[in-house]
Specification:
single chain, alpha+beta, four-stranded antiparallel β-sheet, elongated
Length: 105
Amino acid sequence: MNRKLIALLIIASLLFIPLAAMAEIPAIPKVKLVVLPSLSGDSPLFITYNENSGDNTITNYSYDFGNGDVQYGKEGNYTYGLGGIYNLTLTVSNAAGNTSQSGWI
């Protein structure tokens, strides 16, 4: 191979790799919030929660429990100590920085 062809192949591969990697990250990640047993009952109310969309591009998980408490990670447990109406919101983001939300009231 001559040097011009090799240089052209290297430049083409450098341009293609980032585009190919970016193509694998969806613009908006899928999100599905699962809460067990449910978000209703007597206080204190103990719940188990997780994100169950199957979207393996999600890199960050943030659960806002609607009372000032926030937890991070794909799954966990939480206890609502006081009765009331709370908006539980899960916010996820992927490596491209795009976010989605899912919630329960």
